[in-house]
Design a protein that fits this description.
Elements lengths: L4 H17 L4 E3 L7 H5 L4 E3 L21 E6 L5 E6 L17 E3 L9 H17 L2 H10 L5
Antiparallel strand pairs: 1-2, 2-3, 3-4, 4-5
């Protein structure tokens, strides 16, 4: 028997959740994957707590560098996708090295996130996120791109 669209969505969320938490990520939002409320919560997703060497960075709107994070979202065509945002400065601020460029993963033919494609990207982004210095990112944001 084929899964309903709701069952497929919940299975997709749980599959990603198990994959990411196995790598040390933590869930964000007010509900857990596998719960319908998770899909309706605009703050739901995951973050990589080892970003910035595990240091806590207080959040100041449009100033604070973001940790490595991921979530379900929609692309420009309105299709649901899985998004990953590298740790760094948002919205093209600062230099290219410290910028975040959101990457999207379309679902596979069976409606899942392609974890075999996601894993190599995270193998690059996780060590980078751990090594970044939030102070250097903020200086890059306010005093101009690095190297200028």
């Amino acid at each position: 028997m084929a899964m309903s669209s709701t069952e497929l969505m919940l299975a997709r969320q749980l599959g990603v959740h198990e994959f990411l938490t196995g790598r040390g990520w933590q869930v964000d939002g007010g509900s857990d994957p596998g719960d319908l409320a998770f899909a309706e919560d605009p703050h739901s997703g995951w973050h990589y707590p080892a970003s910035y060497g595990g240091r806590h960075v207080n959040t100041v709107s449009d100033t604070t560098p973001v940790p490595l994070q991921s979530y379900f979202t929609y692309d420009r065509d309105g299709d649901e996708v899985f998004g990953v945002v590298p740790a760094g400065n948002l919205r093209g601020s600062g230099c290219a090295e410290h910028d975040t460029r959101e990457q999207f993963f379309a679902f596979t033919a069976d409606g899942a996130v392609d974890l075999d494609r996601l894993a190599p990207l995270l193998d690059v982004l996780e060590p980078r996120a751990r090594a970044l210095d939030p102070r250097a990112l903020i200086e890059c944001l306010y005093f101009g791109p690095c190297g200028s």
